[in-house]
Design brief:
There is one protein chain. The chain is an alpha/beta fold. It has helices spanning 78-85, 121-132, 154-163; strands spanning 3-15, 18-24, 36-40, 54-58, 67-73, 91-95, 111-116, 139-145, 167-173, 185-186. The chain has a 6-stranded antiparallel beta sheet with strand order 4-3-6-1-2-5, covered by helices on one side. The termini are far apart.
Length: 188
């Protein structure tokens, strides 16, 4: 499996407790919308377990973008705390992309996608890529989150829906207090 070196370019909050990390993109790095990579933090053998240095993440960006982006909920795991603590400019490694979540080649076939929580990341890549390519395919994305604050990329998805006639977002907030701060769908 091929490994690439990447540089941490930035870190941006995209929802409560969720961060997006941006990395340099190696010149010969190729991926398809919806694919994932293993991101490896080098720590010179200090890790107690493999999960402390490596984690799989879906790529959030599109194949046309010049940077690579991943997003994750920030938990108390050793890995995520190390990732969050890295200074801008840190060098990490990613392994070649994996996974196969393509839209059907037949543009006449509608796409219905279902995502919950941070599981939105591969669908962000897929929807953005389809829009960038001018796809005329009808797409519906059902996206559930506990609350508006925890719904990563909700505003971007709403903007995509407004600007793209063939994309529909059905967002639902499932938390007990969701109805107090949300006028859309609630519950499961």
């Amino acid at each position: 499996m091929r490994t690439y070196q990447v540089e941490l370019l930035g870190c941006t909050p995209v929802a409560d407790g969720t961060m997006e990390f941006q990395f340099s993109r190696p010149q010969d790095f190729v991926f398809a919308a919806g694919q994932a990579v293993d991101l490896v933090i080098d720590d010179e053998g200090q890790a107690q377990q493999v999960r402390d240095v490596r984690h799989a993440f879906s790529l959030v960006g599109t194949p046309a973008e010049q940077i690579l982006r991943i997003a994750t909920r920030v938990r108390e795991s050793n890995y995520k705390q190390k990732l969050l603590g890295l200074p801008i400019g840190s060098l990490l490694h990613i392994e070649e992309p994996f996974g196969n979540l393509p839209l059907d080649a037949d543009q006449q076939r509608a796409a219905v996608m279902l995502a919950g929580g941070i599981g939105i990341t591969p669908f962000m890549s897929i929807v953005r890529d389809a829009v960038q390519q001018g796809s005329q395919r009808q797409m519906v994305l059902f996206y559930a989150s506990r609350s508006v604050g925890e719904a990563a990329y909700l505003q971007q998805l709403q903007q995509l829906e407004q600007s793209c006639n063939n994309f529909r977002l059905v967002a639902s907030m499932t938390g007990a207090q969701a109805a107090e701060h949300w006028d859309g769908e609630t519950g499961y």
